[in-house]
Q: What sequence folds into this?
């Protein structure tokens, strides 16, 4: 069985994730529901760190773990934020739009993996952000994969 490229490589590497995260936070800064989480705007260091997280999750270098603090740091950034269901949904929606803005791959297999991670990650962040939440204090950074549908080099059209 042939080895499939990582989601990170399929997307186009670090540059693709930098574009998506920048597009996302540009939208967040204009959003009445999410901008209060970032008084004064979303700073360059935050954007860079979040892009580093996404790169690692999608199969790129383990730089978030090795240089920034890994899962524990990401968890710490979400504790006690009190994220609402509406904010969670808006986050996921704006990130999906940002993937379009950044011209991330639009094949159904890649987008399925992207949306699956968005749903999983935002629901985890919502739960972890509540007062009194019981959280997993230590865990590895997740490594997301293709799920049920691997990449199809010829695009979405398939024989069958």
A:
């Amino acid at each position: 069985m042939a080895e499939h490229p990582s989601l990170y490589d399929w997307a186009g590497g670090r540059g693709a994730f930098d574009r998506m995260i920048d597009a996302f936070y540009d939208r967040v800064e204009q959003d009445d529901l999410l901008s209060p989480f970032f008084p004064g705007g979303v700073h360059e260091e935050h954007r860079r760190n979040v892009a580093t997280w996404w790169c690692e999750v999608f199969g790129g270098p383990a730089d978030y773990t090795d240089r920034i603090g890994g899962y524990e740091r990401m968890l710490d950034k979400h504790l006690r934020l009190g994220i609402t269901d509406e904010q969670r949904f808006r986050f996921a929606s704006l990130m999906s739009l940002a993937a379009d803005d950044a011209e991330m791959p639009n094949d159904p297999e890649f987008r399925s993996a992207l949306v699956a991670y968005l749903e999983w990650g935002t629901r985890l962040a919502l739960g972890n952000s509540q007062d009194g939440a019981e959280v997993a204090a230590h865990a590895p950074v997740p490594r997301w994969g293709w799920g049920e549908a691997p990449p199809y080099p010829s695009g979405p059209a398939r024989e069958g």
